[in-house]
Structure formats: structure tokens, C-alpha cells
Amino acid sequence: MTSWTGRTLELDVGAVAHGGHCVARAEGRVVFVRHALPGERVLAQVTEDNGGSYCRADAVEVLEPSEHRVVPPCPLAVPGACGGCDWQHATPAYQRELKAAVVAEQLRRLAGIERDVVVEPLAGAALDWRTRVRLVTGRDGRAGLRAHHSHRVIPLEKCPIAVPGALDDVLSRRWRPGSELEVTSDGDGRVHVRELATVRGKVRARQLSGGEAVQHAAGRDWRLDAHGFWQVHPAAAPTFASVVAEWADAPRGGMAWDLYAGVGLFAAVLAEQVGPDGRVLAVESGRRAVADGEHNLADLPQVRWRGGRVEHLVADAPKPVDVVVLDPPRKGAGRAVVESIVDGSPDRVVYVACDPAALARDVATFGEHGYRLTDLRAFDAFPMTHHVECIALLS
After folding, report:
1. Which one of 22, 74, 82, 354 is the catalytic residue?
2. Which of 62, 75, 155, 283 has the most CB atoms in a 10 Å sphere around its CB?
């Protein structure tokens, strides 16, 4: 088959798909189209074709626009430019509808669950929310973000989804070509910058400002590695901690697990519920996160930390357990971890997920062992992008 790369197609755009694009069809093939919306008619240029049943394309001209289409607030959120955002050309309300459709489709296709989904906005606007940005530098030393599915660096003058002022100093100067810059704005508004550069084949980190971040959530002040894991949206950690507290409902004197614990946000919630006579096991693979967690929760002796990979440690965790909270990485927990959780016979499992496909696969595995999805909330924790955060209750 001759490659379609570079070819322009006139397409009727169909449903949204997971990953920030919509589905169209041409000559018996599926075309995943970015910069389009369901129901539109567009001219799309094929950007990637590896043969087979599908290819990828960008909508370069909109012939019949959707009523939900708007002008992107960033001039770089267009075909061939920055790949950081997926849905700037849609209203924020419609972005949430698209994400809800994706979550519902993943649950239906991968877990066999029919469920209406609503994606809730977090406090604040759809812009000016991103507290953590990882930039790359081009050959000219200017910092920017990569184009979609490309190593090409798109230099930035500003980023409308970033917290105002966080990137000003970084974007105003030149850097070592090929380096990466991690920028974090913490809960007190302090900006932390770290440069990662490869020298003689080794990655070397240099802290340029700050280093220890302060965050606020779950009624506590947290001190942690500024470049370690913390929710990116300022309203996310407090909101998720509140939902976890409501659904976990760990019994006084009980046993709870916090898996993929980070610095212990949910462990703190569980510890308050089980009280001084209960126990909370917090499992986390990052050494610095464990150290930060132990420091932040030093006043909660009922929390016991174990450092290492969850899949290696959870099988030997003390059982039975009353409640399990897990917040795995994007790939999900996987069958081995799910089955180790099931072995503990928890009454409830609260699953925090940043990828709906991974969530659906793990929910299906829980379902094989008699656990059902009893509640689900989804949050627009990453406006303008295709990402969505879900919290699921399994009983």
C-alpha cells in the first residue's frame, strides 16, 4: 500500500476517541483526526501512515464547523505546532462532554459496563492552572514544547494554561541545547526550576531555584521534592482527598492500604479515619517520596511506610484489609496487583486513575473477583488536554 502521508482528505468527522482525536473513515480505513470535532466536515492532511487499517491526520481546514468550536486561546494550538494541548478549539464545557464520552466508551468496551459519565470542572478557569511544566530546549537554546508525535521543539513565548508568571524567567533566556527544564509553582506561589542535561552520556540535574515545595491539602501543609509527584491542578489534591475520605470510610481501629502513595496524601486521610489504634500501610517506589512522606506524617505513627514497587510488596502485605486506596501510574495497576488486593478481601477499593483505559481494564479484573463499580466521579483536572482524572469506588 502506498503511504498516505502528506495526502489531503475531505472527511466527515465522527465520534471522539481516547487520545485527543476524533474518528473518521476514508476508502475503508480509519483516520484519527486531531484539531477536529465530532460532526464537522474538514480537510485533513495525513501526518502519519505506517500502513495497515488506520492513519493519523490533522484538520487543516474546517469546511463545516461544530457549534462548539472556538478560536484557540494559544496561537500554537494548531496543526504542526505545539503538541501540549488537544482541545483548545472547543469550549471548556464541550471538552468535558468529549472526555465523558471517552470514559464511558472505555468502560463499555473494556469492562462491559454501561454507565453515564459526567466530567466535573475543578475550581478555577480552563486557563492559568498548570503548576508543573517540563520544557525542552531546541538547537537555538530556546525553551519550548515538542510538536505532537515529534521531537521537534516549538519555542514558547508564553503558555496560557500555565500558572501566570511561572515560566517567565525560563522563557526569557537561552539554555544548553537539548536540555530539559522542570518548572514547578508550589502552593505558596514559589517557582522551582531544575535543569536536566546530558553530559558524556549521563543525565545531570542542576537545581537552579528552590527545590523543596510547599503544598496544602487535606488540612495539612506538605513539604516535598518540588519535582516529585503532586497533582498538577491546584484544586486537584484537595478535591481528590475529599472524595477519597468520603468513599474510603475506613473503620476506627481498622486496616487500610494506600498503594502508589506518593508522599502520603491519601494515607493521611486514612490515618485520621482508622485513628491511633488502626494501621495504614503506605507503599511507594520513589525513595525521596517515601522520605518526604515519613517526614510529613511523622505525627501519625499508625502509618507504616514500605519503599519499593507495589507489585513486589503488596502480595506480602498484612491481611485482611478493610479499605484499599490506589493511585497507580498511567498504565494502571495490572492483574497481579489487583489480585493481591482481592486476596486482602477489602470491603471497598477506591481507585484514583489518570487513564480511563487502564481504569477500565483493572475494573474488569476486579469484576472477575466479584467486585462491582458502585460509584464513579470524573474531573477535568487537565483542561485543554485530552487527559481526565477518575475516582472509582469498587465494592
Report:
1. 354
2. 283
